[in-house]
DNA sequence: GGGAATATGAAATAATAATTCCAATCCATA
DNA sequence: TATGGATTGGAATTATTATTTCATATTCCC
């Protein structure tokens, strides 16, 4: 009976996500001006974190007192404690991209737990994506897609660490109804498989140091038959590069001895979908 | 003759990097207490951004007046304007990551070229990594690793879109000399393969909506034999979740109809390497 | 349409925080 | 070691900012 709001009401949201959820939840039932400041808060969280009650109120087009009522309605005892939540968010969202990576990597290297391992792989993947995004050569991409789009059958060649990428390419090509053939080693019939390839086909070959000898050998064999190769590899000294018509240099970061595949995956998907689009377009053109 | 400091001195550093450089540059020539607060500022920039002059001074072990002198020595007219620089830094930092993603995604959606496709996949991968990094449940990770580390043989079960992850897990487990078996569908001997599994083994199963019927069916069969399952899937309604001892919810962003695998890959690698570490540790303990 | 409950605006007040000032201390140099 | 200048500590002062209060407006329900 004598329990007041603060005691009987829900707990005060202590982190931004909870706060956000609470606000969205109550949106309908809030008075006009309070709703106005609520919307402003979610749209401009940085302003709430740094501004003064007066400046924020002015930007949102309300009175400072309304801002304080808003905070109280959420269970805080004033604007200041509401603001803390917005500031905490900025601290934790520790996130210049680079700094977040550094933090992740530091945690991964310093920390001992399994979470640290996970962070390490996330950091490696992010770094790789970042790198390739900066360095990818657009003309190479166009060239590779043109080349592959003309192929009757696309052969996909990769072993060991790169094999997952090959299977994903094969999956995606299949989905897009593009004829393709994964050169697998299980049955030992690779040589025969390669013998079917003609210069009207094309190959996507993927290999990173230490280059799987089988990949190199098969790439050589297939290039000698005049089949054009698009290679994804990690340096210009790669043996794959010398057989390739077009090749991409992808630097993958590693963690705990395992390199990320994220950049290679992104490139592989871009090639695949790019070929799909190109075929659709030229199909349309031919009909038109 | 009548030119005062503010007029004749160097420009006031307006951005954090310049400020940082300025401080580092003068480090040697600063008086003791000022140097103390300078070091503190570079080490704890967030505290400067959010704290009050008094609280910061206390943390750094100096008087508030020293803090103000420090600001003035750098050319600011007081602590407040120095603080602005630290706040600005946080603002820009935050937006940079999100804005970069937004920019990428905008280019990907707006742009027509093949580069746009590539950007789309990079953005999808980054988003996924970001999400999983926030949402991953650490206790699940520990539970899953413990469970898998005890297994005699780890079975890996995934089809179609998830298959690349399975092959990478199998590759990595092999590298770490952990006995494992990829449940492949090629030869149609899956049922027999599953029949070898015992409760002393464990399974990593991966499936996303639309769930490959074979994966679900095999997961059911193997769980009925009492073999514990660690599942990676995309929602609590996933049929995989009901068979699993531990399961992870991974939300992958998609682009052009193909979902990213980057988050799943990172998690898969963390599990794999985590198991490797756990086994090494307990092996050591047993010997000791 | 009238009246109570609720919401809002604006200014007064209280709290908090930045800045200044001055005495005390430290340090280099003669 | 004495002396002047620079540096520092701590309290007084000033400025800024949050909060409260109260009068007014709006809304909702009977």
UniProtKB/TrEMBL annotation, chains A, B:
<keyword id="KW-0238">DNA-binding</keyword>
<dbReference type="InterPro" id="IPR035472">
    <property type="entry name" value="RpiR-like_SIS"/>
</dbReference>
<feature type="domain" description="HTH rpiR-type">
    <location>
        <begin position="17"/>
        <end position="93"/>
    </location>
</feature>
<dbReference type="Pfam" id="PF01418">
    <property type="entry name" value="HTH_6"/>
</dbReference>
<protein>
    <submittedName>
        <fullName>Transcriptional regulator, RpiR family</fullName>
    </submittedName>
</protein>
<dbReference type="InterPro" id="IPR009057">
    <property type="entry name" value="Homeodomain-like_sf"/>
</dbReference>
<dbReference type="GO" id="GO:0097367">
    <property type="term" value="F:carbohydrate derivative binding"/>
</dbReference>
<dbReference type="InterPro" id="IPR036388">
    <property type="entry name" value="WH-like_DNA-bd_sf"/>
</dbReference>
<dbReference type="GO" id="GO:0003677">
    <property type="term" value="F:DNA binding"/>
</dbReference>
<feature type="domain" description="SIS">
    <location>
        <begin position="144"/>
        <end position="280"/>
    </location>
</feature>
<dbReference type="InterPro" id="IPR000281">
    <property type="entry name" value="HTH_RpiR"/>
</dbReference>
<dbReference type="GO" id="GO:1901135">
    <property type="term" value="P:carbohydrate derivative metabolic process"/>
</dbReference>
<dbReference type="InterPro" id="IPR047640">
    <property type="entry name" value="RpiR-like"/>
</dbReference>
<dbReference type="InterPro" id="IPR046348">
    <property type="entry name" value="SIS_dom_sf"/>
</dbReference>
<keyword id="KW-0804">Transcription</keyword>
<dbReference type="InterPro" id="IPR001347">
    <property type="entry name" value="SIS_dom"/>
</dbReference>
<dbReference type="Pfam" id="PF01380">
    <property type="entry name" value="SIS"/>
</dbReference>
<keyword id="KW-0805">Transcription regulation</keyword>
<dbReference type="GO" id="GO:0003700">
    <property type="term" value="F:DNA-binding transcription factor activity"/>
</dbReference>
